Amino acid sequence: MLKKERHDFIMRQINLHNRVLTSDLVQLLTVSEDTIRRDLQELVDANLLYKVHGGALSKSYHSSFDDSTVYARDSKIVIAKKAINLIKDGMVVLTGGGTTILELVKQLPQGISATFFTISPLVAVELAKYNNVEVILIGGLFSKNSQVTYGGQVIAQLSEIKADLCLMGTSAIHPEEGLTDTYWEINQLKKAMLACAKRTAVLCISEKLDIALRLRVCPLESISYLITELDINDEALSRYREKELNIL
Amino acid sequence: MLKKERHDFIMRQINLHNRVLTSDLVQLLTVSEDTIRRDLQELVDANLLYKVHGGALSKSYHSSFDDSTVYARDSKIVIAKKAINLIKDGMVVLTGGGTTILELVKQLPQGISATFFTISPLVAVELAKYNNVEVILIGGLFSKNSQVTYGGQVIAQLSEIKADLCLMGTSAIHPEEGLTDTYWEINQLKKAMLACAKRTAVLCISEKLDIALRLRVCPLESISYLITELDINDEALSRYREKELNIL
DNA sequence: AATTTAATTGCAAAAACACGCAAAAACACG
DNA sequence: CGTGTTTTTGCGTGTTTTTGCAATTAAATT
């Protein structure tokens, strides 16, 4: 392998994961540590990355990691970590869009091997960073508000899918009313997603609890898992615990 | 073996594998290292490949390196500005992916009113920022390399579309060979895109000129517009001017 | 503070490279 | 056809680049 190719490989890794470990590169490229160190040093000289003890970081790392713009990011990370346990190798997973799902995808373990269907372009792009993940983007009209595809075509395609697990964000959840939404199209979409998955996990930051909106998606019983950032025994969840669903 | 034959052989190897080792060529062509080096140097002078220690790399293999400062961004903006003139209100436009197209979308005038079909999630997200634009994302398998959807499903959907204009980036263009590509799937995809648009504009930074890769997409005559960052009368375009296509 | 882990430095061998030179082949032209 | 010129090619020599190893230093971990 030519040096230039190694450099390209390293830069691809960096741009993909924002970071890279010297030891990983040694294995992946089967060269000595010294060579990798020299490569990294040369890339630093070319101003293409930061070097740190143990590896290197992307130059855009600081800007991309510090997206404190994402509302309640910490909570979403907690939720993501819980949800990841539901995903097993070989599964077919269907996901919606939204920042919570996106956070989940970013937290996935490197080696994960699964098939993902998604209606969110951003989720698709993020999923594509995992080598052993097959990504199928469900196409259709693209919604400017929710940044997902929707409409008849999407629903038609969903009807042909059989997924093991559906992960969806939520606008509102209520112990009696179940899942609800404001927009007709999104409502239809969620129904279709529920219909094609064996199990559904709803990712929900606590402040969306106990809210009921105009349109009903499904009763609580249709959901398999409710995942919040709260402790399982938290008071706020008591009315949900009485229902037929797992709380994580 | 004649020198020209050796050169052709080397270029075939390069276009096939994106790279070539000096030592391999010495063996394959049974000539001395010096001859190979001279050959490579001449091909570099003719602007047909990159030379690196140990061998040479394809020019088109300009890997998605430094994506913080998108490669040749200035050129791409010039191209974008030219291409935008082709888009009229009310049109149905089909776009591919790639950084050039993405730059074009970012340069669109705010008030633009049109319908866009696209196979690129990133383009879709960017297009969604324009209020009067309807965005339809064509779904299917998502390619980790080229960041577009591809495969049978995409082609099937494309066959149902009738677009006024197709905007596509390019890996390589050649006055005799026309548009060419390295990957089968992408090749099929581009063919399908061409087939469903009345006119096609190819966006191409000048360094991709005069390169022919393994798989043929279409002859030059199938393209309506060739858009580069160069002046229309630039010498480098002379061989394209002779053909049946508009150069912008 | 002790131990493990990663970085740095200098060194040496191998590989790749550049340059000049000369033999051979191809070419030009009266 | 003969002679002079250019092109092409391989070889020898010296230089540079690349790479791994060993010894030392620095950083993190406990």
UniProtKB/TrEMBL annotation, chains A, B:
The keyword Transcription applies. GO terms for molecular function: DNA binding; DNA-binding transcription factor activity. Pfam families: DeoRC (PF00455), HTH_DeoR (PF08220). Keywords: DNA-binding, Repressor, Transcription, Transcription regulation. PROSITE patterns: HTH_DEOR_1, HTH_DEOR_2. Residues 3-58 form the HTH deoR-type domain. PANTHER family: GLYCEROL-3-PHOSPHATE REGULON REPRESSOR (PTHR30363:SF4), HTH-TYPE TRANSCRIPTIONAL REGULATOR SRLR-RELATED (PTHR30363). This is DeoR faimly transcriptional regulator. It comes from Pedobacter kyungheensis. The lineage of its organism: Bacteria, Pseudomonadati, Bacteroidota, Sphingobacteriia, Sphingobacteriales.
